[in-house]
């Protein structure tokens, strides 16, 4: 799941569906930022990226939030905030009979310089401080998704000691951009979000993703929300600017998160996140929905997800690079944080790693499965 099929519009336009986003310091090149966006759940090796979309990464320098604010960092005001944008677009694919398709990609840097590359070229394209890869890859997401959905449905933990990864063996279309720190203006603590937008004169945001499972497990369930119980809220949320939520729907997002975060906290039979007048203490952190990375810290394969945000909440200095690496089993962190706030045992979903882990060298994502399982009928 992560962000697979995160709303009706993603289901209807699966080519624009962002399934996962990762951001981490390069394991081999200190302070270089690696950004990964996966799209099109259940992709085939023969699938091309869309010539009708802009695949966008947005990177913003972060500052400490105002004291007392539950969101640990500020990404700046809506207008005038410094931001570094990396846009990737693709040509229509071409193919000769009996040959694999060919497709060209172009990545535009914040300064307007362009980098060209060929889809499915393992070496990618390099120029102007950027290296880019795009193509079919093994879906790296680690979660027993049916057990997570059953937990929501029955109101009690449904994870087994040994689970199975629902997405294991399936493919996605991966986009990897590795960035020289000089392109980020010297910023080291940054927030990252990925987006798909329509391409043309008028760009409409189709999807945006920061942290995993915000939409499917924190905004998706309706039954606990007494304010907007019949509202499918995820498409509205996808259209928002991750760094500046519009006031019009803020109340609806907060009501849904307050209710659903309280549900997750209840699953161990005790309250670790006391609410005040129904307001959950993690709601503002969740709404600041971008990955937080410290490029001054070295790459760390596991244990960095949410570490920066939670350290800030606790008033201590963070110890890791934060962000999200590809092989990190972040869902155990997700469940443990929401259910017992780290005050009890680790809440495991019964799976710990992909059967084909990512590497620590470009393009990081593993080669695709040439014969992936068929897409289920209900999807």
Topology of this structure?
Blueprint: H1 8-12, E1 18-25, E2 33-43, E3 53-61, E4 63-64, E5 73-74, E6 84-90, E7 104-108, E8 114-118, E9 125-127, E10 130-138, H2 145-154, E11 171-179, E12 189-198, E13 205-209, H3 214-219, H4 234-238, H5 247-266, H6 283-287, E14 291-294, H7 307-313, H8 330-340
Antiparallel strand pairs: 1-2, 2-11, 3-6, 3-12, 4-5, 6-7, 7-8, 9-10, 10-11, 12-13, 12-14
Q: What would the average pLDDT be, to the nearest integer? A: 93
Rg measurement, Å: 20 Å
Could you describe the largest sheet, including whether it forms a barrel? 7 strands, antiparallel
How many helices does DSSP assign? Answer: 8
Give the strand content: 15-25%
Structural account:
The chain is globular, with a radius of gyration of 20 Å. Helix 5 packs across helix 8. The model has no long low-confidence stretch (mean pLDDT 93). The chain is built from 8 helices and 14 strands. A hairpin with a 6-residue loop joins strand 12 (189-198) and strand 13 (205-209). The chain has helices at 8-12, 145-154, 214-219, 234-238, 247-266, 283-287, 307-313, 330-340, and strands at 18-25, 33-43, 53-61, 63-64, 73-74, 84-90, 104-108, 114-118, 125-127, 130-138, 171-179, 189-198, 205-209, 291-294. The chain has 379 residues and is an alpha+beta fold. The strands form 3 sheets. Strands 3, 6, 7, 8, 12, 13 and 14 form a 7-stranded antiparallel beta sheet that branches. It has a 5-stranded antiparallel beta sheet with strand order 1-2-11-10-9, with no helix packed on it.
